[in-house]
Amino acid sequence: MAAPEKKLKVAIMGAKGYPYVYGGYDTMIKELGERLVQKGVHVRVYNHRALFKERPRFVNGIECIYTPAIESKSLTQLTHTFFSMLHACFSDVDVIFVVNSGNGPFGVISRIFRKPTAINVDGLEWLRPKWKGFGAKYFFWASKMATKFYDQLINDSEEMRRVYLELFQKDSQVIAYGANPREHVGPEPLEKWNLESRSYFLIVGRLVPDNNADLIIEGFLKSNSERKLVVVGDVPFADEWANRLKNIQDPRLLFTGYVTDPEELASLYSHCFAYFHGHEYGGTNPAMLKAMGYGCAILALNTPFNQEMLQNGKHGWYFEKKAQSVKDVVEKAESAPEKMDDLQKTARSGLTQKYNWDYVTEQYLEVLFRLKKKA
């Protein structure tokens, strides 16, 4: 009788960890990791030790390893992955899955140890305003290294695949980021901010220049709207640019800071008049998927990535990177509430199969098994 096939053992690293859900990569690891466990895969996630006061070895069937890092704004994430990669290479994992193109150079370690690897390189990090000078050069170089050292490159949008082909002459597999659509979210949590359903426009995202909250705020305040503009998000460090925005005095402007309660966030999305998406440099954006899943009318910055997600205007309107364009789209939306209603009703239908987490998991599973067989 043939021996039973050994369980696939996968190491995942490059984000903050599990079940820490703060950003897009953390969410992906949670959604993907839990589903892989259900499919009989041994999943090991490398957690950033400093973020976890309690450190159980297994959580929901996922093995958690708590690795250290050099704690500084620019080194934390990279050093955490470096230590995690060393640990994984000396272990019995079959495949290593890394997120974030900044971790591109560490593929040389797995190459030396002959461990099969995949990397999700989402985002044009080198173009983000926060990485000026050396930071931008590093991310461009690191992304190039990812194309050389990892066995499988993964992007979450066709547009990002095109960018990598053009810049680095390297093809990648497109596996989209998943969404969790949800209907019938109550308005009760809005009372915390004295808001009523459909009485406000919404922005959700980190207060960093490449999300263009400053442009949206400037354009909105120039408009004749009597609604509020609610800005959800912040930055986890003292920042002059973010503070300048938060100090703008106008009764129509409401900064909530971080909203960590999922029901409060769901209610803010579900009951906005329209959701503003100003993200400029990324592939499939988690905040946009949430907006679609909660049935928002979406007003998005006109970029190739946002065009792809909204199917070239089928599921949202666009504005250009000018305050006047924001003002115009606000006033156009206010003058056509029935059009906003239509966008809200059809938003979830934009979440085609490729954005379904179960389908996303099946695609990753195929990649992981293929890499294991190559080893």
From TrEMBL:
Glycosyl transferase family domain residues: 196-348
Domain of life: Bacteria
Segments forming domain DUF1972: 9-179
Signal peptide: none
Protein name: Glycosyltransferase
